[in-house]
Amino acid sequence: MIISAATPLLVEHGEMVTTKQIAEAAGIAEGTIFRVFADKDALIAAVVEHAVDQTALEEAFASIDAALPLHERVEQAVVLLQRHVVDVWRLVSRVSARFREHPPRRPPDSDALKTLLSSCELRTDPALAARVLFGVVLAATHPMFVDEPMEPGEIVALFLHGTAGGSC
Questions:
Q1: Which residue, among 85, 92, 90, 86, has the nearest Cα to 107 in the 3D structure?
Q2: Separation between Cα atoms, residue 42 and residue 151, nearest integer Å
Q3: Running DSSP on this structure, what letter comes out for residue 121?
Q4: Exposure of 100 by Cβ count < 10 A (0-12 exposed, 13-18 middle, 19+ buried)?
Q5: Is 94 helix (H, G, I), strand (E, B) or coil?
Q6: Where does 40-117 have alpha helices with state H?
Q7: What mean pLDDT do residues 109-125 have?
Q8: What does the pLDDT look like over 61-83, one tens digit per residue?
Q9: Residue environment code for 49-73, b if the CB has 16+ CB neighbours within 10 A, otherwise e
């Protein structure tokens, strides 16, 4: 509850957010924060850790209907990945480097995404397909790479059909 209340405030105010603001947003007494976290830095570190944790993303992938056509499954996965990339960037860009892991963590292999991409329609291993999809989404979405993110349908077309087309 504290982390959920602190996240949007940290995105809005950065490290200048106060524990009083967080307590008010969470509907708790300010002292309650310090029964859970040693100090504000520990709370900020927990918020960042929660944001980069991919458990919720994994669960969201698993909730996509495997009976959907491949392009629809991929598009739903792209929407989830884009939201995750932007949400993490918004938060992490508002805190100093001392709250970020060194070295940066690699995205874990997603079993749910691999399962979602298991299809005789793909010519590649689902694990490789999942890594490629994550890379394409990251490159086409991350605010440090692009001014305007690609639309999910454009990413799906690029992922499923590549860049070649027409005659030369």
A1: 85
A2: 37
A3: T
A4: middle
A5: coil
A6: 40-52, 55-62, 70-92, 111-116
A7: 88
A8: 999 999 999 999 999 999 999 99
A9: eebbebeebbebbeebeeeeebeeb
Rg (CA), the chain: 19
Residues 6+ apart with CB under 8 A from 89: 142, 143, 144
What is the rounded distance in angstroms from the CA atom of residue 151 to the CA atom of residue 140?
9
Tell me if residue 133 falls in helix, strand or coil: helix
With bands split at pLDDT 50, 70 and 90, how would you rate the model's confidence at 167? low
- Tokens representing 159? 């992922």
Q: What is the per-residue pLDDT across 84-104, written as a single tens digit (0 to 9) for each?
A: 999 999 999 999 888 876 555
Domains along the chain? 1-52 (1.10.10.60), 54-168 (no CATH)
Which of 22-36, 67-81, 97-111, 113-127 is the least confident region? Answer: 97-111
pLDDT given for residue 98 in this prediction? 82
